[in-house]
Amino acid sequence: MSDNVLIPDSKLPALGTTIFTRMSALAQAHQAINLSQGFPDFDGPRYLQERLAYHVAQGANQYAPMTGVQALREAIADKTEALYGYKPDAASDITVTAGATEALYAAITALVRAGDEVICFDPSYDSYAPAVELAGGVLKRIALQPPHFRVDWQAFNDLLSERTRLVILNTPHNPSATVWRNEDFAALWQAISDKAVYVLSDEVYEHICFAQEGHASVLAHPQLRQRAIAVSSFGKTYHMTGWKVGYCVAPAALSAELRKVHQYLTFSVNTPAQLALADMLRAEPEHYLQLPDFYRQRRDLLVNALGNSRLEILPCEGTYFLLADYSAISELDDVSFCEWLTTEVGVAAIPLSVFCADPFPHKLIRLCFAKQEATLLAAAERLCRL
To answer: In angstroms, how far is the first alpha carbon of the chain from the final one?
Structure first.
């Protein structure tokens, strides 16, 4: 029977098990403190949990509308206006998705055609490249250099061509923990204003931004937002990554194309969770307004606890990640160092090179501080012994 098994030619032959899965499995096997995968080890707001239970008990357990529950889309529109001075149309401009990764995939699939070029900035989130490849696009990468990981706008201009279709950006940026500023969006607009180029702005950490001027969003730029899809994540905002609820904000014409993909990818998203999130946005807006301080305290706790270590800590302007240079400790490459760190020291981290297509010679690891204070202090104690 086995002789008749058909083995398909892989559409993504270069992909295997992700580093995140590998490191978490290694951490579990060696009972290491897991600062690798980006999810909290604490729960989300009690009110949000109660509203989920309420809506389940009330019978809101059937399919939601394809575009999202109306109450949630309206709450998102009001939140967007309050934060960025622009109110998208709840009916035509907002789509609720099964997590931000689905939103990214649907956006890329809707916009990118065979042979189109897509520009992204390395290090980059690992879902971008496979989605572009599956859509038949060609990914063009611009390497951002530590410690500040700023965009070289001359290099960006040089990379633009007649085939450029889409620019993917991420701010606050995973894994570098840097943020874009208004002048970056101005420079992007200047570069593409006379070209038929769209923008996909991955802003899942919008509420975890420590910059003094706050989060700069593509939605706050009047021209760019007319050709942009902005993506956000309730999982990041409410410490509920397992709920897998995100959303897109885009002009009606872009949303219509994105929804064609979304409709046949997931169709709709968990109904009671959407209703609970709508209640949460209305009842407790202070949660996301206070999130920068909440995570700033954890960042500072970890940074201070690592003060006596031989790790060099890079600036962290956003996300719940911290970069550390280990070159004073080891000559190992970053993947090998992270494996050694997990098995021998008992702390799991992520090597930065896995976020890059080209060789990444820097000795940098990513630590997640979305953890309980005791977890962070215990990890820091082990790292300070190195």
So the answer is: 54
Domains of the chain: 19-44+286-384 (3.90.1150.10), 46-284 (3.40.640.10)
Task: State both tokens at 359.
Answer: 């060789």
Select from 246, 277, 316 the least CA-distant residue to 44. Answer: 277
User: How many degrees, rounded to 5, is the angle at CA 314 between CA 231 and CA 44?
Assistant: 45
Q: What is the Cα–Cα distance from 217 to 203, expressed in whole angstroms?
A: 8
Taking the C-alpha atoms of residue 240 and residue 48, their distance in angstroms, rounded to an integer, is 10
The DSSP line for 68-87 is --HHHHHHHHHHHHHHHS--
Looking up tokens 């009606």 gives: 252
Q: Are 134 and 165 in contact (CB under 8 A)?
A: no
42-47, long-range: CB within 8 Å, 24+ apart, which pairs?
A: 42/239, 42/371, 42/372, 43/239, 44/238, 44/239, 44/240, 45/238, 45/239, 45/280, 45/284, 45/287, 47/279, 47/280, 47/283, 47/284
- For residue range 325-338, list pLDDT tens digits in order: 999 999 999 999 99
How many whole angstroms separate alpha carbon 247 and alpha carbon 202?
11
- β-bridge mates for residue 350, sequence order: 366
Q: What is the mean predicted confidence (pLDDT) over 66-79?
A: 98
pLDDT digits (tens, 9 = 90+) for 134-149: 999 999 999 999 999 9
Please state whether 68 falls in left (phi above 0), alpha (psi between -120 and 50) or beta: left
